[in-house]
Each structure stands twice: as structure tokens, then as C-alpha cells.
Amino acid sequence: MQITLKTPLDMHLHLRDHEMLQTVAPLSAETFSAAIIMPNLVPPVTTIEEVIAYKERISKATGNLNFDPLMTLFFKNDYSYDFLKQAKAHITAIKLYPAGITTNSESGVSSIDSENLRHTLEAMSELEIPLCIHGETDGFVMDREKEFVPIYEDLAKNYPNLKIIMEHITTKDSVEALDRHPNLYATITLHHLLITLDDVAGGMLKPHLFCKPIAKRYEDREALLKVALEAHPKVMFGSDSAPHPQHAKEACGCAAGVFTAPIALQVLAELFETHNKLDNLQSFISDNAQKIYHYTPSPKAVVLEKKPFTVPETYDNVVPMYAGEEIAWSITSLS
Amino acid sequence: MQITLKTPLDMHLHLRDHEMLQTVAPLSAETFSAAIIMPNLVPPVTTIEEVIAYKERISKATGNLNFDPLMTLFFKNDYSYDFLKQAKAHITAIKLYPAGITTNSESGVSSIDSENLRHTLEAMSELEIPLCIHGETDGFVMDREKEFVPIYEDLAKNYPNLKIIMEHITTKDSVEALDRHPNLYATITLHHLLITLDDVAGGMLKPHLFCKPIAKRYEDREALLKVALEAHPKVMFGSDSAPHPQHAKEACGCAAGVFTAPIALQVLAELFETHNKLDNLQSFISDNAQKIYHYTPSPKAVVLEKKPFTVPETYDNVVPMYAGEEIAWSITSLS
Question: Which of A8, B20, B99, B302 is least surrounded by Cβ atoms within 10 Å, i.e. has the fewest?
């Protein structure tokens, strides 16, 4: 059995910087046409110069792999209309982090409400710059995303011309909010389609499956699977592939993030095939995102075949999901 | 500020075997008069000979520290009345594990209901051998204990003369069940009085706080704190101190268990003092258990003082709770 995926897009990707960038950027660039690049470096990407410089470092790391890094700014509430107008030529979206909610988000926004952010959000609406949000409160870990849904809805209602992307959604509540507001969209990761908290902490504790937002309940995973498999038009694939060195994962305090970039397409093929929905994978992996972001990628085709592939134990010092395990699908050619 | 605790008892303790036993047994024996010793060795302790031999190994490891290991058998549904009658001279209780629910519990009971276990439970009732239970189903990790409460209640109703100890309870539901049945009792650990899932997985992932049952929600911790601080007469301290070598905790798959034995009394003193309940600590740490188990320990007195103590980073290769941190109370003398 074979499938050809045209111009796969990863609408939520962490490439980091320095050595890690050299390790992981080529792995995404090989199989994806483009990706939304998250700006939570240390320090975060907040100026046009930083965007341009980071994009250059990514392009250098990915060489001639025909990969388009879609850049983002780290949301700051003091971005002016004029600044954003200039920035628009260099970025695809702006990413908003609640302060301290995940890796390198300390300088995020501490009070998110529609009034507080009016100046910047009105400018973004007018300039048609999409707003990507990591939607979690600082509440109890299993409730953080659920508690954020009213904040998404407040923003969606107050800025009807702003495209808001609920990033890496993990709960039934978020899925349900999608259809209540025309300007709410969502990315879904690979791992949240596959695991629940039981996989992270139900048997042995699995640091390599620990991520933010944390994997939730079975009913949440079901709700995510449903909209992904049907390729709901407001839903896009965003891996949130988030590499950390092995020593930072298998440690006294383990960093959040699952590294899925090099196995995402293969495992998605397996998942969609298992549910008899292979026909919908093209929309989930690229077409929906193209429409939502008004983006046309340059041509790329990935041929996948149902043929076992043993996932490497590590890519340099990064442990991928399914490390050392056999998965059912392989990539057989790229063009 | 000082407090003297008489004959502290740890009503739920893992001492393991071999080298680990040599490391951890003296640490408990130094400050506790006695402890209920869990039987989940590999293979589990299921014969009188094994009980006697394990007790001898413990006594050898604790030397002249004036410590009474209260032995348990690993529950098997084929224990006969005659066997149990013989065993009674050597054990204090029998510990029931649902199959596969925690460390070394693979040979536990796969179907727990009052009819299925009638033969053994009637014998235990008649012989007045308490039944200690690890009460978790194989459901979703956050629901396992809640789902087990009806099983506790079924057993309590059907065996009114059987003393049932709900071990290491972690939820509001379990606390509430305590008062509905005269023959239900509970142990509570130190760590479940202190942490919630937020401490394990809300920031960085903390393998040294990963245990079974997993720490729950704030309202659960509040319910546990309430009955511990008031020294509810059906509640006893049981540390569930469960050592694993550091490499088994900071690993790709981390074993369940928090190692608290050497700091339990100091941190309990701090906790009870903070809540202005120091007067109740003696009941929680010893008197309640003496009444519930009809057990009189040989004299021991531990003097604690409000004076900072820096917890060692490790005890041999075992990382304790609060490793390297300063806690507010110290043990100043033992007699």
C-alpha cells in the first residue's frame, strides 16, 4: 500500500538554535515543504532583525532541502501598528504565550484579555496577521486548557477579523469551541492523537512523552482524533515537535516536549490507514493549512509505503517518539 | 521549639531486599519503633518460611537499632484456614495487590470481589488478620482509586469482622468512605499530604515525586490533610517510602515510588506545626495505629527540634524527597 503526500506542512514546529538547530532542522526540511517556526528562543524572537537572522540560520541549516521556514514573532503587547506593518513582510504569524506556561515563555503575557491586548490585536486584525496561542492558564495541570477556552472565546468574539489559532489542542472542550466561532482554528499534534496521561504516567513514568499541554483523558483523545481523521477544515497538523537533549529528558526535572518530526508522516499514515481515512490525510497535512493561512507551498511530494521502519534510538542526542520501535509505514521517496 | 514523639510507627513501608535493604532498613529503624513491611519482593513473600527468612534479613540489616519489622504476606486466594492459622504467629497483616497495579505486583489478584475471595477472607476474619489493600483499578490513572472505592465498600459490608486498611489513600472519595464503614481504616503517606499532580507534572516532570497511586488534585490533598491533621482515629501514618536506585528513577521509564523514610518525621513535624496541630502528631504517628492493630511497641523516643536540616542529595544511590533542600525541623536525639 502506498500514498503520496503533496507539500506536507508542519504548522507548529520548534527548531531551537545552535547545535540543536543543526540536528533537527534538516529532519523536518527533508519531508516537509514548510513549517511555522516557534519563536521561543532564549531570548525570544521579538524584532524584525531577529526574525531575519533566525530565518537565515534555519535556511543555512536546511541547505538545499527546499524548505520554507514560516517565521513568527513572540507576542509582545507593545508592538505598534507601524512595527507590525513592517514585520508583516517577514512573518507568517505571531505566537502568544501566557507568561511562564512552557519552555522559554517567561517573558510571555501575564494577563490575557481582550481589553488589555486591544492595541496590538486591532493592528494584527487590520494587517491580517494570524495570532497563534498556547492556550493554558496557570491552574491545575489537567484543567489548564479547559480553563483557557473562555479566553479564546473572548478574543474570538472581540476580534472577529483576527484569525486565532488554538495551538496543539488537547481537550474535547477546545474541539467544541472550534465550531462556535468562525475565526477560531486549531493545530493538533501527532502525539496528542496517540497518547493519554495513562501513557505518560499510568505505568512507568515516560519522560519522552511528557509535553505541554500534558496528554489528557481518553474522551479528549477521541474528540481530537475525530476532527483530525475527518480533516475538519479548521484543523491543521502541527507537530509541536520539541527536541531536548536526552540528558534534559531523563533527569531529576525533565523538560517538556516530544520529538516527532522525523516520524510524523509515517505514523500519521499508519493512524489514518488504521481508521480507514487515508484519503483525508492530504487535507490534514497540507490543504487545510494552505486555505487557512492563504499560503501556497512550493512543490514537494513524499511517497509513503506500508513497510516496517525501525525508528532510530536517537537523532544525535535527541530521543524521538517510538525510539527503537518498529512502525508500520516508511518513507520510500522524496521529490 | 521541640517535640518528643514516642514510638513512631510506619504502617506501610518498602524495605526491598539485598543491597537496597542494607541501605534503607537502618534509616527507618533508627527513628521508627516498628513498621508494616510490604511483601512485594521478587518473587513475593507467600510462605511462612519466606516471611521468617525475610524478617531475619531485615533484623540483621537493622542490627541493634530496636526496630520491630511487622511482617505481611502477599495475598493469594488459595491460602487455607490452616495455613493462615499457622501464619498468624509470624505476620501482622496480609497485603492484597490488584494484579499488575504497581511495582512487583504481577502475581496479584486479577478479580477482586467479595464472592471470589470468600474462602480466604472468611478465614482472615475469623483469625483476626487485617487485610491491607492497594486500592486501584486498571482504569485511567486519575480515576483508579475513585473507581476502587465501591470495591472497598463491597468488601467492608460483606466481611464486617475483617479489618480492612485502605493503603496510601490519595482521594477525597477514599477519605469519605472511611466514615461509612466501621471496619475501614486508612494509611496516609507524607508525600500525598504535600504534593498534587502539579508538583509531579505541572512544571518540569519530577520523576522522584512519581508514585502509585499518583498524586491527585488540590481538593484531594485538602481532604487527606484534614483527617491527618485532626488525627482521625481511623487514620495512620504509612510512609509508603519506596526506594529505587537513582538510575531507575531518572530514566526512559521511571519506576514508581518516593523515598521519604529518613525525612518523614522532620517534615511531618513541620507540616503539623505550620497548621498549628503539633499536638495531634503523636496520634497520627503512633497511637492510632497501636489501637487499630492492637499493637504495643517497645519504647523509643525521638526528639525533634525546629532547626534547619539539609537533606542529603542521596542515601547511597537513592534520592530522597527534598534532596539537597533545607527543611525546617531536625532530629536532635533518639532514645
Answer: B99
